[in-house]
Amino acid sequence: MPASNPRAVAKARDLACDVVILDLEDAVAPEAKPDARAAAVAAMASGFGDRERVIRINALATEWGAADLDAMRGAAVDAVLLPKVDGPDDLVAARERLGPEGPALWAMVETCAGLVALPAIAVAMRATRTTLLVAGTNDLALDLRARPGADRWPLVPALSQIVAAARAGGGEALDGVLNAIDDPDRLAAECAQGRALGFDGKTLIHPAQIAAANTAFSLQADEIAEAHAIVAAFADPAAANHGAIKVAGRMVERLHLAAAERVLALAPR
Q1: For the chain, what are the domain ranges?
Q2: I need a surface site. Which of 51, 120, 189, 203 has the fewest CB within 10 A?
């Protein structure tokens, strides 16, 4: 949400979201950017409950990027979101300016240059404390000159690459926004598609989109039950010397055990 909109920022304190991202980039007019920067830092200092706090700065190549980063060094934020990351040099430059003890970095992949540089970006993630990649689907479609419809099929290869790079770099990935805020069916379909592609969540631009995203990306009861069954089956002494066993009518291997253990680690207690 725009850091320049105090009403929207205040509303975020009561939303059922996991992360609050205050924007200094696209959602803020050029003449309002200095005031928005100060407002974002002040808002983060007052807290957002148990929600993660992130500020999306302006691209490093812009006239505001360096000042944005300097303001982040002492800000009460969990991460700084870098837009239009074209390669690992952007991550390195941001980390150097923030310092080794500064907040984590999140990186938006939304240019063709960033897309083809994903392998190098993945390699640089750990060293620069970049913990998450965000698919910038609007800008990426523009740069590709693609025309994605409701099924987003022109973007699917890029989305898969972003998830793969995030995993290779030891991080997580968030799907891009949906601008059609009055189309709940399309939102539900995009959320389901994003989870099927491996994304950990979805970035949103309107409070009305939160419930659908929470439903799509939350663990379901049948997933948790299946994970319990797999873990219990492998805990049986009879399975000690087996790499694959039968659970509920299908063969599962130890890779499925690892996946089940991850599900249970994420499941509500």
Answers
A1: 6-217, 221-266
A2: 120
* Vertex 264 angle, CA 171 and 16, to 5°: 70
Q: Coil, strand or helix: which one is 11?
A: helix
Give pLDDT tens digits for 119-177. 999 999 999 999 999 999 999 999 999 999 999 999 999 999 999 999 999 999 999 99
28, 82, 34: which is closest to 55 by C-alpha?
A: 82
Does the domain at 6-217 match CATH 3.40.50.2300? Answer given as: no
User: Cα separation of 178 and 248, whole Å?
Assistant: 38
Tell me whether residue 56 is annotated as binding: yes
180-219 residue pLDDT tens? 999 999 999 999 999 999 999 999 999 999 999 999 999 9
Q: Give dist(CA 217, CA 50) in Å, integer.
A: 18
**139 labelled ligand-binding:** yes
